[in-house]
Design goal:
Elements lengths: L17 H6 L1 H11 L3 E9 L3 E3 L11 H12 L3 E5 H7 L14 E5 L20 E4 L5 H10 L2 E4 L10 H10 L4 E6 L1 H9 L5 E7 L6 E2 L3 H4 L7 E9 L2 E8 L5
Parallel strand pairs: 1-7, 1-8, 3-4, 3-7, 4-5, 5-6
Antiparallel strand pairs: 2-9, 8-11, 10-11
The structure holds NADP nicotinamide-adenine-dinucleotide phosphate.
Length: 253
Amino acid sequence: MTEEPHTTIGRQDPIRSLEDLGAGRADAARFRAKHGRPFVVLSYAQSVDGSIAGRNRERIRLSSPESMALTHGIRALCDGILIGIGTLLSDDPRLTVTHACGPHPQPVVLDTHLRTPPAARLVQRPDARPWIIHKPGLPESRAQSLRAAGADPMPCGAGTDGWIDLPSALALLADRQVNRLMVEGGARVITSFVRQQVADLFIITISPQFVGGLPVLDAGAARGAVHLQLEEAFYQPMGRDLILWARPGWAPA
Ligand SMILES: NC(=O)c1ccc[n+]([C@@H]2O[C@H](COP(=O)([O-])OP(=O)(O)OC[C@H]3O[C@@H](n4cnc5c(N)ncnc54)[C@H](OP(=O)(O)O)[C@@H]3O)[C@@H](O)[C@H]2O)c1
């Protein structure tokens, strides 16, 4: 029997709302069991010109209160939430669920060289120990100070680009029972997930602003052209924003 490509799982059931996402919990568990990685939801906010932050990577308000509530609802329906160290250093986020009801997902940071400051708000959260995924062979003192501050450093292989190898990181999360992972950003992380075709659902907030800031696709991380055709696109007005729900088509470049 021919193995069906992983992106077809649940295709007969489009995900176009929090209710659909909530109803797909069992699918996500089956997905992890079958593929050895979590079902990845790539979700972020951008301006109409594709900026996700200001020109100097400063945080800007893109989401309306309504779409912010949706984003937090998505967080609450995911087992884990992943960001890159760039976002941690620029935004110092907590990654909690505050604009919706539901549990906080397990925070995860891709941080090759363990640059996460022990004083980061994510590390200082009293209710969770963020998992900091880093490459092996770093000075033990860095891991120790993060452990003491409230984080769990986790060694993981690096890819040929020198960054954390995404398939290895996702396998590590699957081993830790993460069925569904929300990837929030920033630009380099989103680009890596798209380039390596490890995203299963896109939920993108499009804010009616021109910003001329940080483009969602990072030229360096893209390592050449990235072309992704989204399928089953569903557009939902949300406050002053538009939410795009879509599946990746993984059309060849
Ligand atoms: N609008 C939104 O929804 C939203 C959401 C999140 C963030 N943001 C914005 O995004 C900006 C940050 O984006 P960014 O591109 O500078 O940083 P980022 O994507 O958050 O983090 C990138 C860094 O993560 C590390 N990394 C480790 N493994 C990686 C991998 N496989 N792929 C990619 N990165 C990997 C690398 O640093 P090392 O080499 O040091 O490990 C890399 O430079 C901020 O301005 C933030 O405000 C916006």
